[in-house]
């Protein structure tokens, strides 16, 4: 009796198939568009390098044009940009009690938490910093 139960249990386990999912665009998504729930769908197969969870994609910005049925990869999306190319920003360098600010010009689009190149307007030196939520760029990390 126990042997039959084990055989039935083994058959049930082997007969169930695990499906991985891949997030794909349900329609064309233009670069710089914010991705919503209606813009993506899930395919019941795995594709190498593709995102498997739609929650990672929703609310993000498309960095490139995305086409229907094609998998969405992490390099295709990013946080929504709050800084545009050639925009003037305040650069902040802080260590301990010392805080130095300077005006800079952003050299590429970037979102919160991303690294961005900024040209110091006084010295014309290009530095790399991290975009903060308030729109400033923290340099000297």
What's the layout of helices and strands?
Elements: H1 2-15, E1 22-25, E2 40-43, E3 61-62, E4 77-78, E5 81-83, E6 88-95, E7 98-106, E8 110-111, E9 115-120, E10 126-131, E11 137-139
Parallel strand pairs: 6-11
Antiparallel strand pairs: 1-2, 3-4, 5-8, 6-7, 7-9, 9-10, 10-11
Describe this structure in words.
The protein is mostly beta strands. Helices cover 10% and strands 35% of the residues. It is built from 1 helix and 11 strands, in the order αβββββββββββ. The strands form 4 sheets. Strands 6-7-9-10-11 form a 5-stranded mixed β-barrel. It has a two-stranded antiparallel sheet with strand order 1-2. A two-stranded antiparallel ribbon has the order 3-4. A hairpin with a 2-residue loop joins β6 and β7. The model has no long low-confidence stretch (mean pLDDT 87).
What oligomerization state is this entry in?
single chain
Q: What's the β-strand tally? A: 11
How many separate helices? 1
Radius of gyration computed on alpha carbons: 23 Å
Low-confidence stretches: none
Shape: elongated
Query: How are the strands ordered across the major sheet?
Result: 6-7-9-10-11
Give the proportion of residues in helices: under 10%
Report strand %.
25-35%
Chain-averaged pLDDT: 87
Order of helices and strands: HEEEEEEEEEEE
Structural class: mainly beta
Strand count, sense and closure of the main sheet? 5 strands, mixed, barrel
Distance between the termini: 67 Å
């Amino acid at each position: 009796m126990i042997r039959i139960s084990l055989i039935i249990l083994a058959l049930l386990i082997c007969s169930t198939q695990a499906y991985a999912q891949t997030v794909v665009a349900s329609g064309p998504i233009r670069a710089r568009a914010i991705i919503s729930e209606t813009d993506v769908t899930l395919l019941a197969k795995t594709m190498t390098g593709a995102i498997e969870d739609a929650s990672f994609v929703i609310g993000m910005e498309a960095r490139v044009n995305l086409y229907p049925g094609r998998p969405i990869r992490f390099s295709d999306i990013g946080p929504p940009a709050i800084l545009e190319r050639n925009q003037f920003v305040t650069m902040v360098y802080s260590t301990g009690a010392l805080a130095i600010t300077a005006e800079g010009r952003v050299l590429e689009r970037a979102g919160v938490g991303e690294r961005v190149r900024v040209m110091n307007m006084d010295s014309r030196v290009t530095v790399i910093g991290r975009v903060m939520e308030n729109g400033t760029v923290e340099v000297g990390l």
